[in-house]
Amino acid sequence: MEYRRLGKTSEKISTIGMGTWRIGSYHSQEEKAEQIRAIRRGIDLGINLIDTAEMYGDGRSERLIAEAISGSRDSVFIATKVWPDHLRHDDVIAACDQSLQRLGVRSVDLYQVHWPNPSVPMRETMSAMEELVRAGKTRYVGVSNFSTLQVEEAREALSRSELVSNQVEYSVANRSAEKDVLPYCKKEGLTLIAYSPLARGAIPESLIPAPLRQRYGMTPVQIMLNWVTRDDAVVAIPKAARLSHVEENAASVSVRFSRSDYDLV
């Protein structure tokens, strides 16, 4: 597995992480067991970044992760998110405490604002985030779905901590992050965490040149993940609910393409 620095920190996170949207929702105990096996297999393969959120399944995702990482806490980097309805100071603190309880951990590694909320002053939210850092409840502060201007505002609102990441949608099918967000992250030393890197399963095979598949012996999924993480500032968090998907995802960065091959996509 390939690893990259988180922001300007010395922390190393896997280039391919595990996203958990809709994980924790299941129709049978076997489906639940498969989700747990998938996460554990990812950890065995060297994936240490697991991303979740309090709103995923109304907390069920965090609870399932707690089961999956039992006995492996030191091997994983846990990132979770606070919902925009909870961005008042006391609500941020309470939301984090509830996430910690569901995850069964004393602290998370990265706590992120899931979406901006223009009705809540950024300084109030970031004050609470810094309080969580001081209390040892999170190690790092991040945001999600923020524009570059909102990221600037969040950074200015922090007095002691550094903002390390911005989680946004980014894939072969949705390249809007390349306009402003990605250049900004590269310039300022932030990590771009790419969610929905597989276009929510709607894989646009017409955008995956056959010569690439043949040259590198990769599936369209692997080509997409390799392409979206071609820049050192980017890590990706494809959904990881099945064993075979996790194994496919983990192998996507076993080799790197030439620059000219990346330009084919």
Radius of gyration: 18 Å
CATH class: Alpha Beta
CATH superfamily label = NADP-dependent oxidoreductase domain
The strands making up the biggest β-sheet line up spatially as 3-4-5-6-7-8-9-10
- Pattern of helices and strands: EEEHEHEHEHEHEHEHHEHH
Number of helical runs?
10
**Cα shape:** globular
Which structural traits does this protein have?
alpha/beta; 265 residues; 8-stranded parallel sheet; 10 strands; two-stranded antiparallel sheet; TIM Barrel
Describe the structure.
With 265 residues, the protein is of the alpha/beta class. The protein has one domain (3-205, 228-255): Alpha-Beta Barrel (TIM Barrel). The protein is 37% helix and 17% strand.
Secondary-structure blueprint:
Elements: E1 3-5, E2 12-14, E3 18-19, H1 29-44, E4 49-51, H2 60-68, E5 77-82, H3 89-103, E6 108-113, H4 122-134, E7 138-144, H5 148-157, E8 163-169, H6 181-188, E9 191-195, H7 210-216, H8 220-228, E10 234-236, H9 243-250, H10 259-262
Parallel strand pairs: 3-4, 4-5, 5-6, 6-7, 7-8, 8-9, 9-10
Antiparallel strand pairs: 1-2
Helix pairs in contact: 1-2, 1-9, 3-4, 4-5
Short description:
With 265 residues, the protein is an alpha/beta fold. It has one domain: NADP-dependent oxidoreductase domain (TIM Barrel), CATH 3.20.20. It has helices at residues 29-44, 60-68, 89-103, 122-134, 148-157, 181-188, 210-216, 220-228, 243-250, 259-262, and strands at residues 3-5, 12-14, 18-19, 49-51, 77-82, 108-113, 138-144, 163-169, 191-195, 234-236.
